[in-house]
Structures are given as structure tokens and as C-alpha cells.
């Protein structure tokens, strides 16, 4: 089980987003955009290999996204109507998501097993999502899901956001902190396991 941190996508944070672990090591790169049909968010490892994508297939009030892992479509997700608590289902994977688009807190399950927990946090004065993922093999897909859930979350609500202590970085001699820690980790690139 590992914690990853993804900065919230907003007007001030466009382009690539580095996904870091709780030791502030760079683990993944999240690149892309959404809004029109065929837009995609892609997750790359630090070496530049494409691991997972989520592609927008429809627009409107309830947009639909297809999820790809290692180039293969593994499921799809679409926004549903809910006032306070949401229930989303990812077909093919048979995962379901519970939580609140008002607070940004979510849980992803497969039958009775938890896959991921998403918790909004404040780090360095900016909004992040803390992802607690049970299996390293599912991390790229979970990052894609967290990015879409973050996009759907109502940004005007501050409830549920907790402040977290800074994750470590390298302290430089001039008093600044470096966040360029590259952390290599082993993964099974060919299989999405729970």
C-alpha cells in the first residue's frame, strides 16, 4: 500500500503534473486535457513509457470516458446524477466508486476489496489529492480515475479538505527545497492486478 499525491487540476495548473509518493519521489507523469470528444489524460512512468489513459468519448452533462491500460481498453466510466453522495461503476473492471463530488473524498472497491481511497489535502498551500492505493500494479489506472474525479468535484466547497504536513524533499543550501527526487520502482507492466 502506497500513498501518492496528485495536484488538483485547475486554471493555474495546466500541462503535465508530476505524481509523487509520500517520500516526495517522482513516480509518474500525468499529461493531457479533457473537455471535448477524443481528449485524453495519459499516465507515463518516469522513463516515459505510457502506462494508462482515460479518453473522453462523449461530452455533455454526463460525459463518458474509456479507460486503457497498456493499450487495451479495460473499462469505461461516466458521470451520474447525485446530490450529495455518488455511486459510479466501472464496467469490465467491475470496480465501483463511492464518495462525494462535493468534498472530493472517494473510495474505489472491487467486490469487497478496497482498491483506492482519494482524500483532498493541502500541501504547500496548494490543493492535492492523496491517493492511498492497495496495489502498485493498479496505480496508473487509479491516477487516471482520481484525475477525472477531481475534475468532477465541485471546487467551491472547502469542506472535507485537510491540511497535511509537507512531504519530504531535499533541502538546498539557499533554503529552497528540491522536489526532483526520482524513485524507481518495479512494476508488472503487462498485467493489471488487484
TrEMBL record:
InterPro entries cross-referenced by the UniProt entry: LOR, Tubby-like_C
Pfam families: LOR
Domain of life (superkingdom): Bacteria
Protein name: Uncharacterized protein
Organism: Pediococcus parvulus
